[in-house]
Amino acid sequence: QVQLVESGGGLVQPGGSLKLSCAASGFTSSSALMSWYRQTPGKERESVAHITSGGGTYYEDSVKGRFTISRDHAKNTVYLQMNALKPEDTAGYYCNAIGGSVNSWGQGTQVTVSS
C-alpha cells in the first residue's frame, strides 16, 4: 500500500527554520517525482519544490535560496529544509509522489510562521 507521511511542521518565528519529512512506503521514492506543495485556506494548492528521480530539483520563485529539497534513499524519505521563514510561508505542506502507477498525497503538516 502506497503511503506518504509528513512530519516536522510547527510554529516558528520569522527568520527561523524547520525541516519537513515525507516518509514513503509501498514504493521506492527515489524512482518517483517527489514534490512538496502548500495550501492556505481559500487558495489553490501550489507547488513549492520537487526532486526528480535523477536528482534534479525545482523551486518556486518565492522560496529559492531559502528552501532545499533532498532525499535519503536508505530511509525512503524526502525532506524540505526551510530557512529564513516568513509569515507568508504559513500553510499546510503536502508531499506528493508521481511515478509509474503511483500518484499519491500525504495528509499534510501545518507550518505557522508568527511572532
How would you describe this structure to a colleague?
- With 115 residues, the chain is mostly beta strands.
- It is built from no helices and eleven strands.
- It has strands at 3-7, 10-12, 18-25, 33-39, 46-51, 57-59, 67-72, 77-82, 91-99, 102-105, 109-113.
- The strands form two sheets. Strands 2, 4, 5, 6, 9, 10 and 11 form a seven-stranded mixed beta sheet that branches.
Shape: globular
> What ranges have pLDDT less than 50 throughout 5 or more consecutive residues?
none
Helical stretch tally:
0
Share in helix: under 10%
Task: Look at the structure and give the mean pLDDT.
Answer: 96
- Compressed to H and E, one letter per element, the order equals EEEEEEEEEEE
What is the subunit organization of this protein?
Answer: single chain
What features would you highlight for this structure?
115 residues; mainly beta; seven-stranded mixed beta sheet; 11 strands; 0% helix
Summarize the structure.
This protein is 0% helix and 54% strand. It has 115 residues and is mainly beta.
Task: Provide the fold topology.
Layout: E1 3-7, E2 10-12, E3 18-25, E4 33-39, E5 46-51, E6 57-59, E7 67-72, E8 77-82, E9 91-99, E10 102-105, E11 109-113
Parallel strand pairs: 2-11
Antiparallel strand pairs: 1-3, 3-8, 4-5, 4-9, 5-6, 7-8, 9-10, 9-11
